[in-house]
Design a protein that fits this description.
The chain is an alpha/beta fold. About 35% of the residues lie in helices and about 15% in strands. It folds into two domains: about 150 residues, Ribosomal Protein L4, Chain: A (3-Layer(aba) Sandwich), CATH 3.40.1370; about 45 residues, no CATH class. The protein has seven helices and six strands; from the N terminus they run E-E-H-H-H-E-H-E-H-E-H-E-H. The chain has a six-stranded mixed sheet with strand order 2-1-3-6-4-5. Strand 1 and strand 2 form a beta hairpin. Helix 2 packs across helix 3 and helix 4 crosses helix 5. The longest helix is centred in the middle third of the chain and has 17 residues. The chain is elongated and about 95 Å long. Part of the 50S ribosomal subunit.
Length: about 210
C-alpha cells in the first residue's frame, strides 16, 4: 500500500512511502481492540479508595446503654455502623484494577487500530521535521496546514523530538507521542493519526513480529 508523503506545510512532496500490509492492511479484529482499550482504561484507575470500617474508627468501646429495658434495639459500641460517625459496612478498600493481556493480542489490537485508520482515510504520513524552538503557534500552524486543527489528533514521532513535543503540550485536542508510547486507545481516541516517516519504520519493525 503506497501513501503520499506530506511536508510540514501539508503539501505533497511527490514521494510515496510503502506501508506494510501486515501492519496497516490487515482485517481489523474488533474484539482485540476492545480488550486492549479495556486494559488501558483499567490501568488508569488508581484504586486507592478506602473507607474506615468499624475496627478502624476512633472511639470508645464501652456499651452505650443497658441491654434490656430501654424499649429500643440492643446497642454496643458507639463505633457501630448504625450510628452517625460509626464505621462503614463493607466499605471500599484499596484494589489493583490492572488486567493481564497477551502480548500477541496487544500487537494484533494495535495493527487492527492502524488498519482501521488507514481504511477510513484518517492516517497521514508526514516527513520528519523539527522546530527551532518550542512554540505552540508553530504546532497549531502545522495542524492547520494538514486540515486537522479542529479534530482530535495523534502525532507519532519516530524518535525523541523535544521541540515538537513541548510545542503541543498546551493543546487539549492533540497529543504527541513517540512510536514506543503508542497504544490502541490513543489511536482509536484520535480522529486523525499523523505518522512521521521515522515512526512508520519503527512501527513496522515492532508490529510485524
Amino acid at each position: 500500500m503506497k501513501v503520499a508523503v506530506l511536508d510540514v506545510k501539508g503539501k505533497d512532496t511527490g514521494r510515496k512511502v510503502e506501508l506494510s500490509d501486515k501492519v496497516f492492511g490487515i482485517e481489523p479484529n474488533e474484539h482485540a481492540i476492545y480488550l486492549d482499550v479495556k486494559q488501558y482504561l483499567a490501568h488508569q484507575r488508581q484504586g486507592t479508595h478506602k473507607a474506615k470500617e468499624r475496627a478502624e474508627i476512633a472511639g470508645s468501646t464501652r456499651k452505650i446503654k443497658k441491654q434490656k429495658g430501654t424499649g429500643t434495639a440492643r446497642a454496643g459500641s458507639i463505633k457501630s455502623p448504625v450510628f452517625r460517625g460509626g464505621g462503614r459496612i463493607f466499605g471500599p478498600r484499596p484494589k489493583d484494577y490492572g488486567q493481564k493481556l497477551n502480548k500477541n493480542v496487544k500487537r494484533l489490537a494495535r495493527k487492527s487500530a492502524l488498519s482501521l485508520k488507514s481504511k477510513d482515510k484518517e492516517l497521514l504520513i508526514v516527513e520528519d521535521f523539527d522546530f527551532d524552538t518550542p512554540r505552540t503557534k508553530d504546532f497549531v500552524q502545522f495542524l492547520s496546514s494538514l486540515g486537522i486543527q479542529d479534530k482530535k489528533s495523534l502525532v507519532v514521532l519516530g524518535g525523541e523530538n523535544n521541540n515538537v513535543y513541548l510545542s503541543s503540550r498546551n493543546l487539549k485536542s492533540s497529543e504527541v507521542v513517540r512510536d514506543s508510547e503508542i497504544s490502541t486507545y490513543k489511536i482509536m481516541n484520535a480522529k486523525s493519526v499523523v505518522l512521521l516517516e521515522g515512526a512508520v519504520k519503527e512501527l513496522e519493525a515492532n508490529l510485524s513480529k
